[in-house]
User: What shape does this take?
Amino acid sequence: MNSEIARLFWSFSPFIIMLFIIGLYCIFVTFNLIRVLVGVEVLMKAATLLVIVAGAATGHIALAQVIVVTLIVIEVVVITIAAGVVIGIWRHNNSLDTRKIRQINDEGISDE
Amino acid sequence: MLLSLLILIPLFSVLVLNLPPLLRRAKVSFYCALCFTLAQIALVFFCVFNPQSIVVNPFGSLLELDLSADSISFVVLLSIGITGFITLLVAKYFICEQQNEHNFVSVLFLALAGLNGIVLTSDIFTLYVFLEIAAAASFVLIVINRKKNALEAAFKYIVLSILATTMMLSSIALFLFIAGNTHFASIRAAFNYSSHDFLLILASGLFICGAFIKAGVVPFHGWLPEAYSESPAPVTVFLAGIVTKTLGIYTLIRIVNSVFGFLPAINNLLLFAGAVTITLGALGALAQNDFKRILAYSSISQIGYIVLALGSGTALGLSAALFHFFNHSIFKALLFVNSAATEAQTKTRNVEAMGGLQAKMPATAFTSVIASLSAAGVPPLAGFWSKLMIVIALVASGHPLYALVAVLASVLTLAYLLSLQRRVFFGTLNADCAQVVEARAGLVFAAVLLALITVGAGVFFPFVLNTFILPIEKIFAG
Assistant: This one.
């Protein structure tokens, strides 16, 4: 492992770390379920970029390509299921705001 | 025998069962799934007794996956087969609509393919792919009845699960960078020669964190009680019995044994996380009133035992972890079958609203006592032997303090499970439960079957030890 490869890898790392922080910030700050999914997508993108950089830096581009294509498919499946769940929550609550949903739940318990 | 069929058959079944002529034939798909789980159990026994006949992947050029099977895989494959079978028996009574039953079986097939793939693979990225297949299928299973609380529990589970897989994925990318390959053996080799110490520690830490979230180890256990208690009864049996354990614990065991090796730092982390999980899980269970939530917290606590056993870093600890893995999936499935039976008969999960059900539901009461005693580690039931092995492994590896935690927490286990028994099955009959009758025959059959396995594995412990558990020590890679 020579220093050239390591330098290429480290030069990309600030962007990857930034994407991770944006994604996590988005998940933890928002109260909207769809925005949580957007944050999750940004996180996945950070991980995908990391795979690409790792593949390019070490010269295993073919392997990295295979992995990234598979990842995109998996991501679509998981996000589709998550979006389906969000639609289900919307149909029950008519709201995507987690504060409002929690409020409805609490009231539901006190009614019983 | 052809072990790769365990992945291919479920995948093709999903395709074939959804072709137009068979579509909406819930009965056909149900019996297909039942036969498949039985065949899987038979196949595992065949492979254990005829190890020379194992051909893992005969379709090498058609299916380019790195598959391999060893004694660890057989124990987990057996647990998957048994739990899948029980899940189907329970599903017969809880997933009522025909179309829904068909969908349930299709998604269950996908989950089984994913789980078997996780167990058989020897490539870290393939492991990740199967992990996502199993996880995605389990998300759908939780919300299969479209209940409001289940949807919210599932959303929490999905977000945390994606966080976990992002961590695992980042660590896989780092391993790709360090080792230039994603095969277990090449990553293991990279641990010896690589100069990227910082990246190796980062990658290992991220992967273990991801596995902890998937397994529900404290402090990442927030999603687990809700997901377990809000999903439909058969799905709870499946999730608690095998899904979270394969996704989290099996992955952890496999990666620590085949890739990281039992480094002192990893052992200490596992020991500490295990001890905290056991204690907090048991204390959490003491505070609950909901039948399924008590069992969910008990699951967290028992998962702590498996992590603790793994942390001892010895061959005995590894085999104890796997034996407890098997025992836990049996007795926890049994307890969740019992909770399904009482929920179906009394229409409530609140244990305060039950009481004295023993007279009305003798079989359910009796089997749940067996499961509780096995969970608490009372001889001669199977749970006693695995806990004994865990304690011996901890003492032998020089961690008497952690062994003490394991023994004391076992008393806590007995406390919350006996309190559960007393509130649900013993005492005077609650006036609301006067009309209750014994659960449906299929549920009683499932419960009795699991109770027989628990008692059998305890009484015939030498046989179980020699055929399934001791071979694991040979593949220990200290």
The first helix of chain B runs from residue 5 to 17. The mean pLDDT of chain B is 88.
